[in-house]
Design brief:
single chain; alpha+beta; Protein Transport Mog1p, Chain A; 7-stranded antiparallel beta sheet; two-stranded antiparallel sheet
């Protein structure tokens, strides 16, 4: 009996050593975020003012509508100094810009470095800028959809080291249909 308990005790110690040596290291936040984005359920937000729909990750926190302008919404993920913001808003097309004219205007205004253009939409992306210049390490990705005298805009701002982690959200924005079919 003593021999059996001794062998069980030695086996337990060997198992603990094995587990502690081969325990995976804590993953960096971008990798954790990528796994969470891939596995999470996407929720739908319906804007009552303009009747558009935006899909967002379930774990993103919504900013109260009372704090937003009419027709705007904002969803945020914030952890360990990593902030990801998904937002949508409606902007009047006061100058009646065509899609090519709007591409030129917003590419310049936002300092976009990448653009894709469709018949009634365009997608811009690049480094994020403020009034004082480029914000180091931050990027934006936005889709503008023209409808009558409005631009419906959905955007994502994020740390550049999280770009791979956010591919699902970037694709959601790229394929965004303003109104649900």
């Amino acid at each position: 009996m003593k021999r059996f308990l001794f062998l069980v005790f030695i086996g337990f110690i060997a198992l603990m050593i094995f587990m502690s040596e081969y325990e995976p290291a804590d993953q960096p936040l971008p990798k954790k975020l990528e796994q969470a984005i891939k596995q999470t359920r996407m929720m739908e937000y319906h804007d009552d003012d303009y009747d558009y729909v935006v899909r967002h990750p379930q774990f993103f926190e919504q900013t109260a509508d009372s704090l937003m302008d009419k027709g705007a919404c904002r969803f945020t993920f914030w952890k360990d100094s990593v902030e990801v913001v998904q937002s949508a808003f409606v902007e009047p097309n006061a100058d009646s810009l065509t899609t090519p004219q709007a591409v030129n205007k917003y590419t310049s205004d936002l300092h976009a470095t990448c653009q894709r253009v469709g018949d009634d939409f365009f997608i811009l992306s690049g480094a994020l800028h403020s009034d004082t210049g480029m914000i180091t390490g931050r990027r934006f990705h936005a889709k503008f959809v023209k409808h009558r005298k409005f631009w419906f805009v959905q955007s994502l701002t994020y740390p550049e080291d999280c770009e791979q982690a956010l591919q699902r959200l970037l694709q959601e924005i790229d394929t965004w249909q303003v109104w649900k079919d």
